[in-house]
Amino acid sequence: MAIDPAAETARWLATLSPEDTARAVAYTHGGHWLIIGSLIVSILIGWIIIKTNWLGAARDWVERKKRRPKLASFVVALVYGVMSFVLNLPWSAYASWYREKHYGLTQQAFGGWLTEDLIGAAISVVVSALLLIAIYALIRRARRWWWAWAAAVTAVFVILGLVVSPILIEPIFNTYTPAPNGPVRDAVVKLAEETGTPSDKIYIFNGSKQSDRYTANVSGLFGSARVAMSDVMFQKGADLAEVRGVVGHEMGHYVRGHILWLVGMMIVIATAGFWLTDRLYPLARRWLGANKVGDIADPAGLPVLSVVLAVLGVLATPVFSSMTRITEADADHFSLVHANEPDGLSKALIKTAEYRAPSPSAIEEFIFYDHPSVGNRIRKAMEWKAAHPPETPGTPAP
Predict the structure, then answer these.
(1) Domain 5-18+174-258+322-387: what homologous superfamily?
(2) I need a surface site. Which of 49, 298, 316, 365 has the fewest CB within 10 A?
(3) pLDDT, tens digit, for every residue of 316-354?
(4) Contacts of 350 (CB under 8 A, 6+ apart)
């Protein structure tokens, strides 16, 4: 019997109750406002830090006897990182913990969240300080072209982070274990062999520790790359068709080299961002009243630099969203081609609708969605199903 993709998509979306849909819409729209809220908080924090002049005092203390620009950059970056974390903590607690708790997307206690946030901040502050040593050195030595070199150095840090993260960082927060023997592992290994994905790189992690979101991911780069499924998938009753559909999607990211593509795009965006920062810094310094801060080579001007980058980041939201959305759509297509589980993938996608409004407007999806909307993804799956009937029975449509 011929399949009507539009009707099948509507049937899948109808499995969501009106209450669930309304909650997802409220959560998603609130997330859009968080972008503006975070920008306002970032500007306010930058202004407060500038007015305290603690960064200038830290710079002067380091260089009280002789110029030590590298050490001054490192110490100033550490002080800035700590001050930013403390000042941002109330907002972060609301946006990252309270709001998730309010919408039923996490069971994590505040103490557990705060502990992990402190650990993450400590790592971020140190790594950022090391990066800023290099960036400020480039500003001093390659004054006209520092922005181009800074983008390249940032890319190196990002690549190193991608390689190291699955080995050293992610295990701090979660436990990763190879998928156990059984039907799930057998199905995943078979799919891995068919797609050229290392079959020893399939893990399950205790994602329910932090979030109740139905999710999987691919992380790492080169030899450290792996596909990981949250235990939430199985707590929510994922069957083999779902697992194949979801893991096929994540394998698509691995096989299609999406991480490297995104890194390449980030180099382009970082280059443009640093160039604009170089031009906008004097204006931002005057606007923020940073009278005790020098030019862009002064590490005490880090809050000014950060505010400019924060504003540019918000303006570039559609660019970032579109970059990621393109890779997600491609990974969906990869899953459909290689796993051929359109119903399994659709069943999994419906479970993500609790934190993604399933049917946004085209403009909303373009600006804010870093994944295609659930409705559009299911529609693509149903179009595939109509054109490529599965060879074996999969998950029945609702």
Answers:
(1) Metalloproteases ("zincins"), catalytic domain (3.30.2010.10)
(2) 316
(3) 999 999 999 999 999 999 999 999 999 999 999 999 998
(4) 12, 13, 15, 16, 374, 378
Domain boundaries, the chain: 5-18+174-258+322-387, 37-164+261-311
Residue 94 gets which letter from DSSP? I
Residues 337 and 385 sit within 8 Å (Cβ to Cβ): no
Residue-wise pLDDT tens digits, 61-87: 999 888 899 999 999 999 999 999 999
173 backbone dihedrals φ, ψ, rounded to 5°: -100, -25
From CA 186, how far away is CA 380, in angstroms rounded?
A: 27
Place of tokens 């890319």: 155
CA dihedral sign of residues 125, 127, 133, 139? negative
* CA triple 249-169-40, angle to 5 deg: 85
Q: Is the dihedral of CA 255, 178, 205, 350 positive or negative?
A: positive
